[in-house]
Amino acid sequence: MRSLLLLPLLGSMVVADSSASFNPLTATVQELSPLIARGKITPSSVLDTYLHEISTYDGYLKSIIEKAPLQSVRKIAAELDKQPPKSAVHGMVMVVKDSLVTDPGLGMQTTAGSFALAGSIPTVEHPALRKAGVIVIGKSNLSVWSYFRASFGDQPSGWSPRGGQTKSAFDPALDPSGSSTGSAVAVSAGLATFSLGEETDGSIISPANRAALYAIKPTVRKLVPGSAVPISHNMDSVGVMAKGAWDVAAVQGIMDGREAEYMAAIAQGQKGWKGIKIGLANRGFYFNSTTVEKDIVDGCLEKIEKIKSLGAEVVEVEMPGVAMVDGWTDQWVITHADFKEDVGAYLRTLKNTTIRSLGDLITYNNVHAVTEMPPGHCCQDIFLASNASAGSNTDEYRTALNRAHYQSRDLGIDYALKKYGVDAIMMPSEVASTLPAIAGYPIITAPVAVAEIKNVTQPFGLSFSTTAHKEDTLFRIMAAWEMSFPDRPKPDMKKLPKKQEKSAKL
Fold first, then answer.
1. pLDDT score of 282
2. How far apart are CA 498 and CA 4, in angstroms?
3. pTM score over 0.70
């Protein structure tokens, strides 16, 4: 199906203007797509630009765990050169988190960062963007097993046995967050046009926040079985990270089959804030310097005052469910049981592996602890707790799931939307993900600024969430935000070491 975006599509192959160029650090789909359509650049020239950037910087950043074979991606790009644009993403270069399945024919594995799944062959590709003409240049590094193997502090964000430690492009001392770490770092550093991440709770929003990107975790919906390494079917979702609101909406729209709707919301948001009402969520918790660094709170509040002056209506809202879900007890009951069952079901879809259950993974980690555990860290306590779960067919699980949904929806996000008449709620992205995650509701992040936190340069953003399947509302807000604050923070790539370490193989 052709894109519904209003782009000047060409009817035949064109030759690129050799004088045309673009800056990969700042280039967006919105910028590059018309250039391809008008023949100013080609998919092959776009690919070559990003290959150069990866070769230059990713030996240091380690954002990409495995690149597509060079001959393969060049062939794909050459074929796209000959075709009229299929969509807005025709010829764009993306990276995909190593928990999302890609066709083995592309020459890349899907391992969740672990050698335990090395050599395994998935049978179902994650359905999304290749038919629209995207070039998948590589699989992005991540916090191994999507940060669901060991408790916080027992494994670094962005580290995996296969990929090593991903570093922030903004500051080598900054925790880049995770678990979709490489997906965020690669885009922020100009190594890809956009990326895909997978989130249970925070894995897209948090690293995108630390990379000054726009991103969305859409409403939780059932993924195609075998198309992704799962944690919880109640909370998992696949979303987009990019440098602009238009890009996120265009790519997510193609994935969701709602492209026209999302792009209409972007167009509406670009007209400004008039008619948008937002709830500032639980100031005493989300906007409290004991919860979030004071400079981040102050930076968010400063921008909120600005959007009020530009026409947004902002009211303070209190959601009684926030305090109830903060303990995470029900969330752990749900995710432990889901992971045991969901990852087991995924493993049983694979070919060429003896790993068939969570118990097999635990045994593998015990035998291969030297390679599977990060330097100076240990443990797989979340794996062990999940394996000990009695599963989803228990009263404990059903009670936890019902209570979690009631607290996060009826006493949480839906409560605020109905009582205060707001379109969405907003929270600093540093602490925003859990309430929408438990509810299964969509959430976005938009970049705010950069702060110096304990002598570390840290980008930070503001998140917005609303009820299920109202992504169009969030895209309208995202577009209005970008119109108000067009200067997204960018890393200084001149400060990064070049070709200092080996990057993933081409």
1. 94
2. 40
3. yes
